[in-house]
Specification:
The protein has 88 residues and is mainly alpha-helical. It contains three helices and no strands. It has helices at 3-12, 24-70, 75-85.
C-alpha cells in the first residue's frame, strides 16, 4: 500500500487535519471509516499476492509432473498435454 493510497483513503473517510471542527462522536466515526478503508485495502493486497503465489505453485507442480512424464517411453505426449493445461 502506497502513501498516496493511504492519503486517498483518508480523504474518502473525511479525515483531515482540522479535527477541531468535529465532535468527539463524529471524529470516532471518521477514524473508524478510515481504519475500515485501510483494512480492506490491506486484505485486497494480501489476497492478490496469495492468488499469484498459488498460481505460481500450480505452474511449478505442472512442470514437475510433465518432467516425470518425459522420463517414460511415450511420455512426451502426456507431458505435452500436462503443459497444455497451463495454457488453457
Amino acid at each position: 500500500m502506497t502513501q498516496d493510497e493511504i492519503y486517498e483513503m483518508a480523504i474518502q473517510a473525511e479525515l483531515n487535519l482540522y479535527v477541531n471542527d468535529l465532535t468527539e462522536k463524529r471524529y470516532i466515526e471518521v477514524i473508524e471509516a478510515f481504519a475500515k478503508l485501510v483494512a480492506a485495502k490491506a486484505f485486497q493486497d494480501g489476497y492478490e499476492k496469495g492468488i499469484a503465489a498459488f498460481n505460481e505453485a500450480v505452474e511449478l507442480e505442472r512442470e514437475a509432473c510433465a518432467k516425470v512424464a518425459d522420463g517414460f517411453i511415450g511420455g512426451d505426449v502426456i507431458a505435452e498435454r500436462i503443459r497444455a493445461r497451463g495454457e488453457a
